[in-house]
Inverse folding.
């Protein structure tokens, strides 16, 4: 790490490398700034579908950054909508029936069979001099 | 840890300030709609700091990636509720629970045999984020197989890039090529089963229409519940097979238990306990489970703390990662090849299964939606 590297240097070199470090830091931040406020919006505006997608997300207040179902209200809305629709009609294939459990058993079975046949050998690390 | 509390507090303040900056940045209105979440911002900001001015030595005691990740994961477990998988019936289970492990295993095999991934851990982490549900699955898989922080960073980065691309391309493709009567349900199920992050799934679903949004978000939710099963499977595989092979020694049951990542037990226990509570509430009054667990204190606490622990974890990863180390893991573009091939197989399998389930086997269910 830079910190460790600079500890072994002469005081003059150390302050110059520290300065270089800060310059690089500010440069990276300015790149990030440019990406966020100039390049990102330009890229988005040049792809019509991306503009539409952004507008839809903004209108519906969808958190596009969420990575788990509990972080989006749409998961709960979807769940409520489907439960209400399917609870009333009770079509074939709804509820915890035999087919439903077959799906779960199949999942476990696939993993169990896969576990048995998963490759064992390790690929040797490539020579760093190559 | 042999550091004094005051030293830890000082170092934690540093990591915390970086995390607050990341949190503010990722919620900035312009940035938010790119679909790039706080995990990536935390890694990027952390890496900029560590590779330019350097992470101060006094801040290192609080760079506790593993601790933050495992705590965050147990909190995640509290929201993995098994009753959720009934929501869209058998069709949903087949799309989310049968295709996903198949894709995981085939991609892992492909990674080892054809691509010849040098790290089984990186292979397993990429397979998980690509086939299950992106960042959350990558975190769980990486912790379960004890992957390096650079391997998790790479997997999360790949997932984020492809999520942003697929979020825009998939709904356009569906609109252009799918028959009109199949765009909402089939398209929604396809996107829910393949796009990694839930937020992106919701946005892509909303692009097609309300029904597509609901189907897509629900399929993704059912897939999210699979994280526990996959994490357990990975932990078991690495403990009993990979580590045994690496050390070249046969181990007994006690040694397997000793090596087994215990947080997986906590993760699954939290999931089972809260699933039982959720179902018990629902059994006593319809909708009570949703009120108490989905909207109540469990959600409030778990969402908040999980978000903070994961931000701290990714900031810590960034603060302790060297660009050069990261580059080493990307050598030959193998992770990219693995992700692209795996995701292509995932797209094919999910579409096929969704069509068979929603339009051939359970068409009555589809008509009701």
């Amino acid at each position: 790490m830079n910190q460790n590297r600079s500890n072994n240097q002469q005081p003059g070199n150390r302050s110059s490398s520290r300065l270089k470090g800060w310059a690089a830091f500010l440069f990276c931040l300015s790149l990030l700034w440019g990406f966020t406020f100039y390049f990102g919006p330009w890229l988005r505006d040049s792809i019509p579908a991306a503009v539409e997608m952004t507008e839809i997300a903004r209108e519906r207040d969808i958190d596009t950054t969420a990575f788990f179902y509990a972080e989006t209200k749409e998961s709960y809305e979807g769940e409520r909508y489907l439960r209400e629709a399917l609870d009333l009609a009770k079509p074939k294939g709804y509820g915890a029936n035999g087919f439903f459990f077959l799906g779960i058993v199949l999942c476990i079975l696939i993993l169990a069979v896969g576990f048995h046949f998963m490759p064992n050998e390790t690929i040797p690390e490539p020579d760093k001099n190559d | 840890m042999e550091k004094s509390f005051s030293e830890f507090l000082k170092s934690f303040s540093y990591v915390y300030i970086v995390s607050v900056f990341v949190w503010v940045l990722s919620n900035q209105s312009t940035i938010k709609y790119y679909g790039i979440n706080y995990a990536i911002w935390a890694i990027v900001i952390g890496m900029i700091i560590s590779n330019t001015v350097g992470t101060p030595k006094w801040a290192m005691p609080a760079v506790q990636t593993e601790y933050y990740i495992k705590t965050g994961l147990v909190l995640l477990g509290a929201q993995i509720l098994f009753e959720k998988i009934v929501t869209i019936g058998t069709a949903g289970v087949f799309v989310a629970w049968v295709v996903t492990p198949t894709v995981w295993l085939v991609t892992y095999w492909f990674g080892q045999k054809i691509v010849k991934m040098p790290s089984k851990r990186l292979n397993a982490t990429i397979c998980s984020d690509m086939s299950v549900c992106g960042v959350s699955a990558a975190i769980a898989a990486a912790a379960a197989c004890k992957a390096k922080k650079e391997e998790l960073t790479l997997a999360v980065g790949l997932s984020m890039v492809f999520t942003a691309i697929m979020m825009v391309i998939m709904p356009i493709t569906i609109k252009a090529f799918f028959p009109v009567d199949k765009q909402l349900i089939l398209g929604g199920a396809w996107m829910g089963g393949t796009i990694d992050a839930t937020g992106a799934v919701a946005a892509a679903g909303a692009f097609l229409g309300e029904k597509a949004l609901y189907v897509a978000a629900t399929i993704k939710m059912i897939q999210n519940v699979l994280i526990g099963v996959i994490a357990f499977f990975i932990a078991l595989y690495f403990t009993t097979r990979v580590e045994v092979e690496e050390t070249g020694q046969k181990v007994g049951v006690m040694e397997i238990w000793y090596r087994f990542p215990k947080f997986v037990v906590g993760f699954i226990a939290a999931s089972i306990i809260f699933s039982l509570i959720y179902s018990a509430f629902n059994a006593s009054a319809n909708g009570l489970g949703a009120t108490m667990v989905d909207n109540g204190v469990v959600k409030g606490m778990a969402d908040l703390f999980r978000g903070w622990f994961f931000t701290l974890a990714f900031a810590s990863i960034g603060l302790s990662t060297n660009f050069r180390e990261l580059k080493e893991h990307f050598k030959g573009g193998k992770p990219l090849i693995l992700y692209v091939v795996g995701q292509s197989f995932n797209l094919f399998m999910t579409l096929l299964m969704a069509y068979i389930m929603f339009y051939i086997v359970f068409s009555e269910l589809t008509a009701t939606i």
